Amino acid sequence: MRHGSLLDVLTEVDAVLTAGNSYGQMDGGVDRAIAEYWPGVQRSVWTALADEHHGYLPVGSAAVVPTGGDPCRWLVTHPPCAC
């Protein structure tokens, strides 16, 4: 366990997992911080959801998108509930 910001450890990991929503909207909490850190990642999530899931990521599934960052090159978004 660490205290601090998730953004502080992004240089130490290959991927980050976020409990996003089924529509890929990254406008609050951790998702917002990630979207602000990697400005293009929101568009990547929407594109992946549109191309692979018809715009809606079902609960229990996940989408993996490139972040454009280094060394943390991947974002895994996964909706944990239908909310």
TrEMBL record:
Domain Macro span(s) in chain numbering: 1-83
PROSITE patterns per record: MACRO (PS51154)
Domain of life of the source: Bacteria
SUPFAM superfamilies named among the record's database cross-references: Macro domain-like
Protein name in UniProt: Macro domain-containing protein
Organism the protein comes from: Kribbella ginsengisoli
Lineage: Bacteria, Bacillati, Actinomycetota, Actinomycetes, Propionibacteriales
